[in-house]
Amino acid sequence: MFEKSTWIRLPRNVVVGHGVRSSVVEVVDDLHLQGRPLLVTSPTPRQVAAEPVAADFEAAGIDPAIVTIESATFDSVETVIETAEAEEVSYLIGVGGGKAIDIAKMASDHLEMGFLSVPTAASHDGVISNRGSVPDGNTRHSVAAEPPLAVVADTEILAEAPWELTTAGCADIISNYTAVMDWRLAKRLKNAEYSEYAAALSEMTAEILVDNADLIRPGLEESAWVVTKALMSSGVAMSIADSSRPASGAEHLFSHQLDRIAPTAALHGHQVGVGSIMTAYLHGGERGIWRDIRDALASIDAPTTAAELDIDDETVIEALTTCHEIRDRYTILGDGMDEHAAREVATKTGVIS
Ligand SMILES: NC(=O)C1=CN([C@@H]2O[C@H](COP(=O)(O)OP(=O)(O)OC[C@H]3O[C@@H](n4cnc5c(N)ncnc54)[C@H](O)[C@@H]3O)[C@@H](O)[C@H]2O)C=CC1
Ligand SMILES: O=C(CO)COP(=O)(O)O
Ligand SMILES: [Zn+2]
């Protein structure tokens, strides 16, 4: 008997383009949302986008509440929940980088309220996804959450954000190559649940981004457009899979472990990019695609070495040899890397010297 079923949860409206920040109120109206919004933001994105969005609401006769969070913690999620209850709001709007959006996502999940995603940086593929990522105890990876009701991504704002945020978003997408390799391996070896549609979409997204790498340059709004479309497509792949598998394999485990053990963590996308160079080597050896990944990252100014991440060599080895413990997700790292092997892959790929 056929007993499979699937429930793919996606936003209803995805608005991307020049100056679309001023469409947030219209998007809310299109969604038939009533009452007050709570804007969830962090210090710089507050000035860049949240205050202008709040002014648009005021001009439309709606009184928005606003909360600024400083860090991605469950205390921040709690602050948002308490503010939402005290201010009697009806929906949330996450305005900022990945952390502000994830906090809005997690709080909206708890409050059983809808939320909108208004990214101010094209730095990660969680803008549209049904995943939320807030460190909890020793865990760092994302968990299932509500997808946004709508995404409003203003390419004018995204193009003006610091360039390294955009290169981090590109690297998060380039890492899809190795995430999908890990996923297929887990399917073959462990019968992991797998979606060919999600895997193909994720890989194709990385390919289109790499094919358009010459369009990705600082200050160009077209770059923000190309990268944002890729981030949306990658997030949709996660929603189709109902898992972060299409966009997160061993390279993400490596990055999550760096977040725990490195004295100063680099951007998420930059860390997963460097991880992807090494896990591509583990998959294919010398003749694999690790050089293509490294060159693609270098071509858009993303880091390709530990030094460029500002992380010392020994921390890289520690992360490589321990990160398989981060979550129950089978990858090319299997039950953990031997230290000698870790040193060899990191040295051969030029990640450490
Ligand atoms: N939920 C999901 O599916 C996913 C979640 N993530 C999570 O997203 C996070 C990474 O996101 P990031 O955006 O890299 O980090 P982030 O949210 O910490 O942002 C980095 C910095 O850029 C600043 N910023 C944002 N927009 C700016 C602008 N326009 N001008 C100046 N500064 C600006 C932020 O305030 C912050 O200080 C990680 O926690 C990661 O785990 C990443 C991928 C998928
Ligand atoms: O960063 C992500 C995809 O790019 C989410 O992956 P995780 O589930 O590993 O947090
Ligand atoms: Zn990621």
From TrEMBL:
<keyword id="KW-0862">Zinc</keyword>
<dbReference type="GO" id="GO:0046872">
    <property type="term" value="F:metal ion binding"/>
</dbReference>
<keyword id="KW-0443">Lipid metabolism</keyword>
<protein>
    <recommendedName>
        <fullName>Glycerol-1-phosphate dehydrogenase [NAD(P)+]</fullName>
        <ecNumber>1.1.1.261</ecNumber>
    </recommendedName>
</protein>
<dbReference type="GO" id="GO:0005737">
    <property type="term" value="C:cytoplasm"/>
</dbReference>
<comment type="pathway">
    <text>Membrane lipid metabolism; glycerophospholipid metabolism.</text>
</comment>
<feature type="binding site">
    <location>
        <begin position="98"/>
        <end position="102"/>
    </location>
    <ligand>
        <name>NAD(+)</name>
    </ligand>
</feature>
<feature type="binding site">
    <location>
        <position position="252"/>
    </location>
    <ligand>
        <name>glycerol</name>
    </ligand>
</feature>
<keyword id="KW-0521">NADP</keyword>
<keyword id="KW-0479">Metal-binding</keyword>
<feature type="binding site">
    <location>
        <begin position="120"/>
        <end position="123"/>
    </location>
    <ligand>
        <name>NAD(+)</name>
    </ligand>
</feature>
<feature type="binding site">
    <location>
        <position position="256"/>
    </location>
    <ligand>
        <name>substrate</name>
    </ligand>
</feature>
<keyword id="KW-0520">NAD</keyword>
<dbReference type="GO" id="GO:0050492">
    <property type="term" value="F:glycerol-1-phosphate dehydrogenase [NAD(P)+] activity"/>
</dbReference>
<feature type="binding site">
    <location>
        <position position="268"/>
    </location>
    <ligand>
        <name>glycerol</name>
    </ligand>
</feature>
<feature type="binding site">
    <location>
        <position position="125"/>
    </location>
    <ligand>
        <name>substrate</name>
    </ligand>
</feature>
<feature type="binding site">
    <location>
        <position position="172"/>
    </location>
    <ligand>
        <name>substrate</name>
    </ligand>
</feature>
<feature type="binding site">
    <location>
        <position position="172"/>
    </location>
    <ligand>
        <name>glycerol</name>
    </ligand>
</feature>
<dbReference type="Pfam" id="PF13685">
    <property type="entry name" value="Fe-ADH_2"/>
</dbReference>
<feature type="binding site">
    <location>
        <position position="268"/>
    </location>
    <ligand>
        <name>Zn(2+)</name>
    </ligand>
</feature>
<comment type="function">
    <text>Catalyzes the NAD(P)H-dependent reduction of dihydroxyacetonephosphate (DHAP or glycerone phosphate) to glycerol 1-phosphate (G1P). The G1P thus generated is used as the glycerophosphate backbone of phospholipids in the cellular membranes of Archaea.</text>
</comment>
<feature type="binding site">
    <location>
        <position position="125"/>
    </location>
    <ligand>
        <name>glycerol</name>
    </ligand>
</feature>
<feature type="binding site">
    <location>
        <position position="172"/>
    </location>
    <ligand>
        <name>Zn(2+)</name>
    </ligand>
</feature>
<keyword id="KW-0444">Lipid biosynthesis</keyword>
<keyword id="KW-0963">Cytoplasm</keyword>
<dbReference type="InterPro" id="IPR016205">
    <property type="entry name" value="Glycerol_DH"/>
</dbReference>
<comment type="similarity">
    <text>Belongs to the glycerol-1-phosphate dehydrogenase family.</text>
</comment>
<dbReference type="GO" id="GO:0008654">
    <property type="term" value="P:phospholipid biosynthetic process"/>
</dbReference>
<dbReference type="GO" id="GO:0006650">
    <property type="term" value="P:glycerophospholipid metabolic process"/>
</dbReference>
<feature type="binding site">
    <location>
        <position position="252"/>
    </location>
    <ligand>
        <name>Zn(2+)</name>
    </ligand>
</feature>
<dbReference type="InterPro" id="IPR023002">
    <property type="entry name" value="G1P_dehydrogenase_arc"/>
</dbReference>
<feature type="binding site">
    <location>
        <position position="129"/>
    </location>
    <ligand>
        <name>NAD(+)</name>
    </ligand>
</feature>
<keyword id="KW-0560">Oxidoreductase</keyword>
<keyword id="KW-0594">Phospholipid biosynthesis</keyword>
<dbReference type="InterPro" id="IPR032837">
    <property type="entry name" value="G1PDH"/>
</dbReference>
<keyword id="KW-1208">Phospholipid metabolism</keyword>
